[in-house]
Amino acid sequence: MKLLIHDRDITLSDSVKEKYDRVIFADGRYAPCQGCFKCWTKTPATCVMKDSLHEMCRLIGLTDDLVIVTENWYGGYSPAVKNILDRSIGMSTPMSTYRGWQMHHVLRYGRYNSVRIYVTGDVNDKEKETWKLVAGRNALNWGVSDIEVSFSDPLEDVEETEI
Predict the structure, then answer these.
(1) What is d(CA 41, CA 94) in angstroms, rounded to the nearest whole number?
(2) Which residue range(s) make up the domain with 55?
(3) pLDDT digits (tens, 9 = 90+) for 32-84
(4) Are 154 and 162 contacting, i.e. CB atoms less than 8 angstroms apart?
(5) Tens digits of per-residue pLDDT, 87-125?
(6) What is the C-alpha to C-alpha distance for residues 160 and 158, in angstroms, rounded to an integer?
(7) CATH code (residue 11)
(8) For the segment 143-156, what is each residue's pLDDT rounded down to a tens digit?
(9) Which of 94, 95, 134, 144 lies at a 20 to 30 A Cα distance from 126?
(10) What's the rounded Cα separation, in Å, for the pair 30 and 28?
(11) Is 91 exposed, middle or buried (0-12, 13-18, 19+ CB in 10 A)?
């Protein structure tokens, strides 16, 4: 499965949409994670908030190719994209294991997918360093073996994008 999460307020062409099984526009209209951890314990991999993101844990956990297009916010995801990623915590379990010689949560789906992050907007050298660090930590937490960070906007010219 291929999933695109983006915060670009543009209309995607049909040629871009058909490359993905699901496209999620991070418009900031989703409820933020409440930190209740019920997606870990009471309703595994399903958020108790009944909105369009209640299956986000399962969706990201089962994705083979995740593409994130986000505006740079001081070396991190935009608030709208971060909100979506926060709602996916249930793709792991409350149990712990060692990954990369460090303790991390056991992955519920055991997937080793690829993630491509495209950072848009102005990004200075310090922020690029922070992005690479964040992407590396995300890769470790998500059990991803292939992660790539690019500092360009692949949706700028939506007709010729390669994402």
Answers:
(1) 8
(2) 2-150
(3) 999 999 999 999 999 999 898 999 999 998 899 999 999 999 999 999 999 99
(4) yes
(5) 999 999 999 998 878 898 999 987 668 999 999 999 999
(6) 6
(7) 3.40.50.360
(8) 888 899 999 878 77
(9) 144
(10) 6
(11) buried
